[in-house]
Amino acid sequence: MVTAGDIEFEQEQTKIFVLTKSVIIMVAGDLTVQADILHSVIEHKNRQLNEYPDEWLSVKLVADWFYEDLAAITRQRAAKMILHPLNLDFDKLVLAGIDSELANQLAKELLDFRIAPIQAIVMGIDASGAHIYEVSNEGVVCQDWTGFASIGAGAWHANSQLMFGEHVKHKEMAETLMLVYTAKKRAEVAPGVGEKTDMIVIGPELGHFTHVGEPAMAELRTTYNRVRKQAQKVRENGNAKIAKFIERAIGEPALEDPAPNLIEPGTVDGPAKA
After folding, report:
1. What is the mean pLDDT of residues 74-82?
2. Model confidence over 123-157: pLDDT tens digits?
3. Per the count of CB atoms within 10 A, which of 7, 69, 89, 254 is most buried?
4. The pLDDT of residue 149
């Protein structure tokens, strides 16, 4: 599902952006803002590779670029909305010597200004190993220890499935592929999450990545649907057993005697009197 401003629609548009052969960016949120950020990140990458052509790009560095560019766009839009109508910019706000009450009000509005939620997963392999970073309006979070990250409207559903599946970063690729695919399908119950699914595998060596092709995706779909039907059958059998148990329990006398009176006569108000 693609979001552009206040429009949401499904299209043949991947949200996986291949920055280099070892660093991938996955995005969620307003793609008009994401496009500006990605263009800027590409410029950072080109300068970095021109200056250090023999060094692998750091995944953390790319995540920091993404957040810095997001913060810059936020500042630009805040200035346009709040300062420009008053013929001010950030420099003039400091140097113009405006009334302190107005300055405090403008400062509060600038600090409170927010753009639409923007999220990204920056993942890949560099000289120090494999890494996952989650980037949002709030900052950059390293998810290496967790071993997974989810973004977008279905993030809670996907994270729940990954936690329930006990995913860790050392799991085998086949099990990871199936679990990640399942997490995506579970997330589709959330509003705004489309059915289109793209998958990519990075590594295991530096400079290698693979788009998961249609034959593998078809096998994942078939396997997922089969497992889902089996799980549904197990739930139905379980519900039937519990229904029979409740039916028997209602129709039979209580299996336990009533709880005995634990307070002996005379133990509260003194010895019992004849």
Report:
1. 92
2. 999 999 999 999 999 999 999 999 999 999 999 99
3. 69
4. 95
CA proximity to 181, closest of 196, 170, 202, 166: 196
Q: Which domains does the chain have, with CATH numbers?
A: 2-212 (3.60.20.10)
Q: Considering the entire predicted model, what is its pTM? A: 0.80
Q: Lowest-confidence range among 64-73, 141-150, 179-188, 201-210? A: 201-210
